[in-house]
């Protein structure tokens, strides 16, 4: 498998996982509860699971470190580039953090652009509430401040 295809699959998988965690409720509403609990711990920690730039950055860092130390095949972009340099795990982790955040953010905004500018009569405007997106504020309001 070529490196370009591996990086493309990595970007799509990162976007899919980030989209599920940030916007989805998941099976048994696990992601909804995750966002609720992290928001209860602190607003800063809760932001990590409600932001399409924050979560992928942490996901990229985590995936890079797991890939560098535990998986013998390079799967993240900067682990592919820096695989021959054993002391540069920290550089690969930081670069994968930035790359994943940027790639997911770009895919997310491309998707939003096409959603808001579609000509199919289902144009989403700012006045229309989107019931399929659950934010940390929605969870806090739903469950109250206990």
List the helices and strands and how they pair.
Blueprint: H1 3-23, H2 30-41, H3 43-47, H4 54-70, H5 77-81, H6 89-116, H7 136-143
Helix content: 55-70%
Rounded Rg: 18 Å
Contiguous helical run count = 7
How does the major sheet shape up?
none
- Averaged pLDDT, please? 87
Determine the N-to-C terminus distance.
Answer: 51 Å
- pLDDT < 50 stretches: none
The arrangement of helices and strands along the chain is HHHHHHH
Overall strand count: 0
Strand content: under 5%
Give the tally of structural domains: 1
Q: Could you say which structural class the secondary elements and strand pairing correspond to?
A: mainly alpha
Shape: globular
Question: Overview of this structure, please?
Answer:
It is a single chain. The chain is built from seven helices and no strands. The chain has 146 residues and is mainly alpha-helical. The protein is globular, with a radius of gyration of 18 Å. 26% of the residues are buried.
């Amino acid at each position: 498998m070529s490196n370009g295809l591996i990086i493309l699959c990595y970007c799509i998988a990162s976007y899919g996982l980030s989209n599920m965690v940030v916007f989805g409720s998941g099976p048994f509403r696990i992601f909804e509860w995750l966002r609720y609990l992290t928001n209860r711990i602190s607003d800063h920690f809760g932001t990590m699971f409600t932001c399409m730039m924050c979560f992928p950055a942490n996901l990229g860092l985590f995936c890079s470190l797991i890939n560098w130390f535990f998986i013998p095949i390079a799967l993240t972009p900067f682990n592919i580039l820096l695989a021959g340099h054993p002391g540069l795990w920290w550089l690969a982790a930081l670069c994968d953090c930035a790359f994943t955040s940027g790639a997911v953010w770009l895919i997310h905004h491309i998707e939003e652009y096409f959603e808001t500018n579609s000509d199919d009569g289902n144009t989403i405007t700012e006045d229309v509430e989107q019931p399929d997106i659950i934010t940390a504020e929605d969870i806090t309001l739903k469950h109250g401040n206990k």
